[in-house]
Amino acid sequence: MSVIKNRKPRPTAPRWRRRKEDRPAEIVAAALACFAEKGFAATRLEDIAERAGVTRGTLYLYFQGKEEIFKAVVRQSILPILVRGEAMVAASDEPSGTLLARLIENFPKAVLGSPVSALPKLVLTEVGNFPDLAEFYLEEVVRRGRRLIKALVKRGIDRGEFRPVDLDHVFYCVIAPILLTLLWEHSFKPYDRSELEPDAMLRAHLDLLLNGLRRGSDHAA
User: Coil, strand, or helix at residue 16?
Assistant: First the structure.
């Protein structure tokens, strides 16, 4: 009769390590979903913890509080889009109008259909009551986006592709229809029978914007 010797079990990969490393991203994803559904002020840390499948105490292992979680949400969901836009413009020698059109098209495509698309509405309606978050969003998103758009339009002017324009205010003209599209998605869309169609809106916006910027578009006052 053969004797079966006791063998030590083979070591297995410690799942808790992978889980622990993934946890901050899971918390951020849960917070984004909660913010999109309830808004920033109405979302409790308990809501985020429950959706992430952790305890409230666990949140404090990674974040100091709800405002820090919001900043992480913005950095992980909005800033990568800006970074990709900056890299695209820096690496390309294409006409400025082509790059501007690509920037305008890429942002809605990157966020529509996901909870990220609710962030502009949340920011516009709520961060005024949270000065630290307002300044954070202005610096990290708005001012960075403004620098990108202004630099691209100035590039077009310097290369003779665009006519001279007010760079500071052209930025707002560029982003306003995009913001309207995202705000409409999370406000009037359920009640609007005619329904704003994002792709058609962007095509109309680009047609007006690029034809207004191009050389030869000057009109007598």
Answer: helix
Q: What percentage of the chain's residues is helix, strand, coil (to nearest 5)?
A: 75, 0, 25
pTM of the model: 0.82
Backbone angles phi, psi at 215, to 5 degrees: -60, 140
Helix and strand counts by DSSP (H, E) for the chain: 11, 0
Burial class of 145 by CB neighbour count within 10 A (0 to 12, 13 to 18, 19+): buried
Question: Can you tell me which residue has the tokens 């002017």?
Answer: 157
What is the distance between the alpha carbons of residues 132 and 8, in angstroms, rounded to a whole number? 55
Q: Where are the alpha helices (DSSP H) in 39-166?
A: 45-52, 56-62, 66-77, 79-91, 96-111, 119-126, 131-137, 143-158
Q: Which residues pair with 214 in a beta bridge?
A: 162
Continuous segment of H or E residues that includes residue 49 = helix 45-52
Per-residue pLDDT tens over the stretch 139-187 = 999 999 999 999 999 999 999 999 999 999 999 999 999 999 888 888 8
Query: Which tokens sit at 3?
Result: 């004797």
DSSP letter, residue 8: P
